[in-house]
Design a protein that fits this description.
Elements (H helix, E strand, L loop, with lengths): L1 H31 L5 E3 L3 E3 L2 E3 L3 E3 L4 E3 L4 E3 L3 E3 L4 E3 L4 E3 L3 E3 L4 E3 L1 E3 L12 E3 L2 E3 L4 E2 L4 E2 L6
Parallel strand pairs: 3-6, 4-7, 5-8, 6-9, 7-10, 8-11, 9-14, 10-15, 11-16
Antiparallel strand pairs: 1-4, 2-3, 12-13
């Protein structure tokens, strides 16, 4: 009798683990996989920012201050891209940006009243011109022209 209870307990434990794994997989398949890539076929004016035709965003691309960004046509921004556009970002036409981009258009004020920096930011626009290819794991600093 005791052996039967132990076997049943182990079986119930395995079934519970299976159900949990199945729920996680079902959630991932239903929600996460649908959000991997977004392709925009038409011009979009979103919160003041402009995004041209045929723009593809890979999975997990984050853009802050969308109102300060202009993206041209035929642009690809790879997975895990992070664009901080407070100072303004302009991306030209026919631009390919590989995965893991980090782009900042603002920085801390190191000449402020407090050391090492104060609460004010210095904004400098970033310009990525037409027909540019940016490789993997690139960081672009404020004020850059590529």
């Amino acid at each position: 009798m005791l052996l039967y209870k132990v076997i049943n307990f182990q079986k119930d434990k395995i079934m519970l683990i299976y159900k949990i794994i199945n729920k996680i997989y079902t959630y991932y398949k239903r929600y996460a996989l649908k959000c991997q890539n977004k392709i925009l076929k038409e011009n979009i004016n979103y919160q003041g920012g402009t995004i041209g035709k045929n723009v593809k965003f890979g999975y997990n691309v984050t853009i802050s201050s969308v109102k300060n960004i202009t993206i041209g046509e035929n642009v690809h921004i790879g997975s895990n891209g992070f664009i901080r556009a407070e100072g303004g970002v302009a991306i030209g036409n026919n631009v390919f940006i590989s995965r893991n981009l980090t782009l900042y258009s603002n920085s801390h004020n190191y000449n402020g009243k407090r050391v090492p920096f104060d609460e004010t930011n210095i904004n400098k626009p970033v310009l990525i011109e037409d027909n540019v290819w940016i490789g993997m794991n690139v960081t672009i600093a404020p004020g850059s022209i590529i």
